[in-house]
Amino acid sequence: MSLGQELAPHLPFLRRYARALTGSQTHGDQYVRATLEAIVAAPGDFPRDVDARLGLYRTFQAIWSSANIETGPADDSEDDGDPQAIARARLARVTPLSRQALLLTAMEGFTPEDAAFLLDEEPEEIERLVADALAEIERQTHAEVMIIEDEPIIAMDLETIVRDLGHGVTGVAVTRDEAVQLAMQRRPGLVLADIQLADDSSGIDAVKDILAQFSVPVIFITAFPERLLTGERPEPTFLITKPFQRSTVKAAISQALFFDSATVPAM
Q: What does the UniProt keyword field contain (predicted)?
């Protein structure tokens, strides 16, 4: 198998990484093209002591570093309101090396050891860089959260998790009518909603009523996720299964807020 054939399956994913890193499809693809041109010009320099994917990303990193472009993703202000543009803008505020470490591990799926090889760092340093990147992202995404949950213990647990993440809580509603009333009184930046509520009302209906008034990201929490994951109709983007792990709730909250334009940097 030729080198080109070995690299071909990995090119779409390198483009994904490059676009996320630059914040621009055009700029990202340009650096991928430069990477391929460098490989064609000097195939003997391609690292053959590692697998093809690692070698490809290693070559890209060399092109990226030599170009001195570590000033953050391009400004896509013309895409204001677009979730991907919002994410790129927030990612741009993460320091360059931390951003690369985060993307290589969280998006591209490299181990800390592989990312260390790609970035010429130690694995321990990669883990520190990723932690720094996540902390910066969380700092940028502060919100007031409304909880729709009729089980007191679960509601208290959710409220603790939300506050531990540095967010506020507008209140807890246990029925559809209470949820709508609370949302109108104190507009939330995120909604955590159970499906089955007290008085047999529906958290889904409560959320529909709220979304009819204004846009807000929603995370549903349910013991029956299969009912909302059929793929046959519009369904929630963010869904947590009961019983839940605290880490799962934290990850869902961070992800939902990261792509939402309504959240504001914490002061």
A: Phosphoprotein
Show the tokens assigned to 169: 């809580």
Q: Is the pLDDT reported for residue 128 higher than 70?
A: yes
**What does the alpha-carbon distance between residue 8 and residue 190 come to, in Å, rounded to a whole number?**
41
Whether residue 236 has pLDDT greater than 70: no
- The mean per-residue pLDDT over the stretch 228-232 comes to 54
Q: For tokens 């502060």, what's the residue? A: 142
Yes or no: say if 216 and 144 are a contact pair by the CB < 8 Å rule.
Answer: no
Q: Look up residue 94 and give its DSSP letter.
A: S
DSSP line for 113-159: HHHHHHHT--HHHHHHHHHHHHHHHHHH-B-EEEEE-S-HHHHHHHH
DSSP symbol at 196? B
Give me the DSSP letters along 51-91.
Answer: -HHHHHHHHHHHHHHHTT--S-S---GGGTT-HHHHHHHHH
pLDDT reading at 73 higher than 50: no
Average pLDDT over residues 126-143: 82
- H/E element, 218: strand 218-222
Cα-Cα-Cα-Cα torsion 250, 218, 226, 153, nearest 10 degrees, comes to: 60
Contact between 206 and 180 (Cβ < 8 Å): yes
